[in-house]
Amino acid sequence: MPLHIHRAERADVLARALAGVLAQPQEDPFAAEVVAVPAKGVERWLTQTLSGVLGADGSADGVCANVAFPSPAALVAEVLAAVSGVPPAQDPWAQERAVWTLLRVIDASLAEPWCAVLARHLGAWDTAGAAHRVGRRYGTAAQIAALFDSYAAQRPTLITEWAAGSDTDGAGAAMPEDLLWQPMLWRRLRAEIGEPSPAERLDAACGRLRARPDLVALPPRLSLFGVTRLPSDQLTVLSALAAARDVHLWLVHPSPALWSALRELPVARTRAEDMSATAVAHPLLAGLARDVRELQQRLAAPAADGSDTYHPIAAARFEDVAPETDSPPTLLKALQAGIRDDRWPPAPGAVGADGTVQVHACHGAARQVEVLRECLLGLFAADPTLEPRDVLIMCPEVEAYAPLVRAAFGQRTAGSPEPQADAEHPAHRLRVRLADRGRGVTNPLLAVIAVLLELADGRVTVTQVLDLAAAETVRRRCGFDDDDIERLREWAAESGARWGIGQRQRQAFGLADFAQNTLNSAVDRILLGVTAGETSDDWLDLALPLDDVDSNDVDLAGRFAEFIDRLAVCLRFASAVALSPFSTLSARSPSAFKADTSNDRDSVPAEMLMRSPSFG
Fold first, then answer.
1. Looking at the whole model, is its pTM more than 0.85?
2. Rounded to whole angstroms, how far apart are CA atoms 78 and 87?
């Protein structure tokens, strides 16, 4: 069966066409439809759109059920796991597992001449800077593991050529001399793992999938909606799936003229050879459509070396979905028509400024959100048919703009009383949903772990520590409320705390002889302020009691001291994990770490920060 490719300039047109395909029942009425989407935001929007089209009798009854929305990567991983018999959780080439094996390989290879570039980066040949660069080991190994994983997805022929002993770049050229350490390191990793890599298993798995389509528990009809990129491994698997199933690819493509122009060009194997930007005249098509141009070349053009990899895709049946027309001309429609027809320059005076395209210059992100809020209210007031569900707001960094959006539009919690009409901004009545949030937001514990890992490799400033104490999960575990956090900030300022847990933590920065302005010294001053008399201004050993600690602060001072001590244990254990060889780490545990640090000033009984019984 061919791969069905549908394209249109608008996503809502594609969604309606997709609904027409899904409305046709499958042979098994209980089989779930599979529609792969690139992001959760696309899934939410597509679900809402389909619910207004699908129905038992063809009417808009608001039901979208029995439809699975995996990501393309998850779909392909499921297929490969079923065909090859290697579950992703047990695959030794999985990035999170291969990084530890790669650490061991790097440690064993740093002394060899071919590894000079990597050894210089890690400071193995620089005795003066080795102490400062030793913390790069895990970060470097993780980056290289991600690089190898990307090679396997984007250019699997590169990995297969490396496995065959050729130092090439996967596009017919020799590897540059300054990058020759990469194929050598990959072959060492391949020998250490002892099993074929995903790129080596890809062709055999796809051949098995074509011969035995029943190995995969997928329905006879699949769809991929809204994808802008498809790596080579995913495209190969989809081609194999299309041999026995109907695979529909729904592409938001800006211009039929661009599609026709690119079909006449040869396929570029590298971006340096890609001349597709010169095939169009409109500057937006040339400057902003690189992803769709590259995806089209992967889909529609035969491979330059005449291989059969792209043959099923080259023979695919292309279907154009025509958008709706017959609406009054506007500046936005004129711009869209110019892009669609690849016309440049535009006809002078055809359409004037009518507000359909607006550019607002603001002096900051907060002001941008405020202007957006007022513009949306104006649009809702001017057009009664416009609904909040029809508005999509895009921003470059969702996490950076999320608190600003919540502040500008309000966030009414469940069970909160209904405010009076004149007591709130009209925008607070709008329901704003934030999509594509990071895992650290959806799971606050992951955010705390990320902060701890960042602190383990940094200077541990007092601001970072107090921000960690103010995190919701930490403050709930430690019993800190808003007044406590504010009190701790006052103590930190009065005690002179600046950075570093203690002298040992400062040792990595060459300042082990200076205990001043550390968090331990601040804790000493706070605890001495609890025990010393109110009229005592004398130094006790090397610490001066903090005079701003009264009897009501005794419990808070103890909880803060325990928080700092447990934080020190966590950071030292994280540093030990990052710096120790893999074979040594496998035998270490928090109890062993406790024995190693029991005589250290910075350490306490080695329980992790979030597991203290006294905190809960």
1. no
2. 8
Using only C-alpha atoms, what is the Rg of the chain? 30
Query: 3-class SS at 499?
Result: strand
pLDDT of residue 366: 92
User: How many residues make up the chain in this entry?
Assistant: 616
| 106 and 185 Cβ atoms separated by less than 8 Å | yes
Bridge-partner residues for 35, per DSSP? 223
Question: 36: Cβ–Cβ under 8 A, 6 or more apart, which residues?
Answer: 69, 70, 71, 72, 74, 75, 222, 223, 224, 225, 227
The pair phi, psi for residue 248, each rounded to 5°, is -105, 125
Q: Whole-angstrom Cα distance, residue 107 to residue 191?
A: 15
Nearest 10 degrees: Cα torsion 476, 479, 485, 486: 130
Q: Confirm if 19 and 250 have CB atoms less than 8 A apart.
A: no
Beta bridge partners of 223: 35, 248
Contacts of 389 (CB under 8 A, 6+ apart): 48
Tell me how many degrees the CA angle 586-588-594 measures, rounded to the nearest 5.
Answer: 165
**Residue 338 CB neighbours (<10 A):** 20
**Could you tell me the CA-to-CA distances from 266 to 261, 273, 298 in Å, in that order?**
11, 10, 11
Grouping H, G, I as helix, E, B as strand and the rest as coil, residue 317 is strand
pLDDT of residue 12: 85
- Alpha-carbon gap, residue 598 to 577, rounded angstroms: 18
Task: Enumerate residues 6+ apart whose C-beta is below 8 A from 84.
Answer: 201, 204, 205, 208
| Continuous segment of H or E residues that includes residue 487 | helix 482-495
Answer for the pair 159, 232: CB distance below 8 angstroms, yes or no: no
CA-wise closest residue to 222 among 25, 71, 40, 36: 36
Residue 203 has what pLDDT?
93
3-state secondary structure at position 430: coil
Residue 227 tokens, joined:
């994808």
The pair of structure tokens assigned to 14 is: 């594609």
Output the six-digit token pair for 483.
């007044």
H or E segment at 248? strand 246-252
Q: Which residues contact 275 (CB under 8 A, 6 or more apart)?
A: 265, 268
- Residue 421: the pLDDT is 56
Query: Is 464:477 a contact under the CB 8 Å cutoff?
Result: no
The CA-atom distances, in angstroms, between 373 and each of 376, 419, 430 are 5, 19, 10
The series of mean pLDDT values per 10 residues for the chain, 616 residues long, is 82 88 87 92 88 67 85 93 88 92 93 90 62 70 94 92 91 88 96 94 94 92 92 91 91 88 82 87 91 84 32 43 63 88 83 86 93 93 89 85 87 55 76 74 79 84 90 87 88 85 78 82 81 60 71 84 88 66 35 35 33 35
Q: Are 34 and 68 in contact (CB under 8 A)?
A: yes
d(CA 491, CA 325): 67
